[in-house]
Structure formats: C-alpha cells, structure tokens
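Students often ask why inverse folding is considered easier than folding. One informal answer: many sequences map to the same fold, so there is more than one right answer. In these notes we will look at a single instance of the problem. The structure comes first.
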C-alpha cells in the first residue's frame, strides 16, 4: 500500500489540469526565502514545521485533497470499480493523524527498540 501512495499523490497533482492549476495556485506567491525555509525546516520539524500562519501539515492536507480530486477526475478504474484515489489512503491516514512513519519509528527507537535501529530492518521490511 504505502509504496504506491507517493506516486499516486504526484499523478493526482500533475496529470489532471484542474489539480495542476490548483497546486500551482497554492505555491504561486511563495518566495525563495519561504521555499528555502521549508527545505531547511521539514527535515527536522516534519509535518509540524511552521509555514506562514500554519504548518506543513496544513499544506499536506490541502495538497492531498487537490491530488485526490485529480485522481477521481482521471477516472482510471480498477476491475472492482475503484479509482486511483484509493492509493492515497496511506497519505490520508498521515494527514488525518499528523503522524508519519518516521514518527512511529522514532517512538519505537526511544521505546521498545531501546535505542537500536536494527529492528527497523525486520519490522519495516516489505
């Protein structure tokens, strides 16, 4: 499931003209300084990194909904009748909870894993 989520996110944004225009509108007035601040802030702050009057999580929610609309409008259906937006479910869980897989791993590292990264290879293998 999760391995398809990021490609689906980008397909939803880039392969539908309405979604592409909406995403372009979101970022249209971002300054170079703001883009640099995002680049520098997200690796440490993740979804909680501050941006303008909100957080990166706020941006993620907005862009995920734009992407979902793009995937629905593409209307590429699987044999069971579901469209490609089903692949966004892992992203949707993240934007609803505000917790990423990295957050879960850090909690395990500081908890049950006792400061070791070795268990990641077993517990997060796919």
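Output (designed amino acids):
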């Amino acid at each position: 499931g999760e391995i398809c989520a990021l490609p689906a996110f980008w397909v939803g944004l880039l392969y539908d003209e309405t979604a592409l225009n909406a995403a372009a509108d979101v970022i249209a007035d971002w300054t170079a300084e703001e883009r640099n601040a995002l680049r520098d802030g997200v690796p440490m702050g993740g979804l909680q990194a501050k941006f303008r009057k909100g957080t990166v999580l706020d941006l993620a929610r907005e862009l995920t909904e734009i992407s979902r609309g793009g995937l629905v409008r593409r209307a590429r259906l699987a044999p069971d009748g579901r469209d490609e937006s089903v692949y966004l479910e892992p992203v949707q869980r993240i934007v609803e909870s505000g917790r990423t897989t990295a957050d879960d791993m850090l909690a395990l590292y500081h908890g049950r894993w006792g400061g070791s990264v070795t268990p990641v290879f077993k517990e997060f293998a796919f």
